[in-house]
Input
Amino acid sequence: MKPRTLTRLSVLCLALNCQAAPVPQAAPVPQAAPVPQAAPVPQAAPVPQAASVPQAAPSPDPTENKRAKTPATVRTPEELIIALGRCAKPDWASKYRSPIPTSPNSRAQTALLIGNTFAEGYLAAQAEDAQYCKNVVKDLLAMAKTLGVQTELLDRNRSLAESAQKKDWPLLRRELEATESDLAAALRQHEDAGLVHLITLGAWMRSTEIIASILKETYSENAALLLRQPVLNQLLKTGFEPLTDKLRSDPLLTHIQPTLTAVAQLLAGPADNTLSLEEVNTLANTLASILHDITSRQN
Output
């Protein structure tokens, strides 16, 4: 039997009948529930900035404090001269005194002159004048002999002379301080504490006169504050009270007492109250008058 010829239409129908049944669509995958967002982490409170530490003020020069107007406090006549040297460059040698008598008329006059001479030694050290220092040493030894205490000072005076020869000025200052201390101890052993008081007073008067005479020529408010010294003021207020009646009745002390009281009144103001140029002139002239009497008065 002869096979049947397939027509185009037959082929087409056959193809259509043979198509696969449609594949069923998979069920849609359910979307996962959205993950809840974590609550935002609260920001830490800002750390407060540490308060700025104020910078320490630079240490003031003890001789210069314009705003505070506070005087440099010194303990000794030597420190007074050194303090002025920090804020001025005076001609120290121009302040040397004339030669003094090394055999005064009374023990009171001798004690005051010894005090003046110690201040002269501090002045010589500031001027770095070896020869003048040697002259001071000789004067000290001669006047110590007048008071009967030269033996206690022999070794110390040799050290002073050697320091001056070597031009070791710091050592010379220390030796001067030690000499003054040794002399005071020797006098107390001789029950002459009143003379120790006069030596201290003499040294302060001469040192203060040196400062005032320099400021008289080259005035400075800051430097003038140096004249407001508690130790000096107390010493001037005390005056001759610590002395025995016999020593207090010395003609020289009786003569200078009123003038010394005037100096005490001039320097008795507040510590931060600068002496004016006019007051400095008065102070310099008054002290120069007292020192002249101490040097030259004949009992």
Q: What stands out?
A: The first helix runs from residue 8 to 17. The chain has twelve helices and no strands. The radius of gyration is 48 Å. The mean pLDDT is 80.
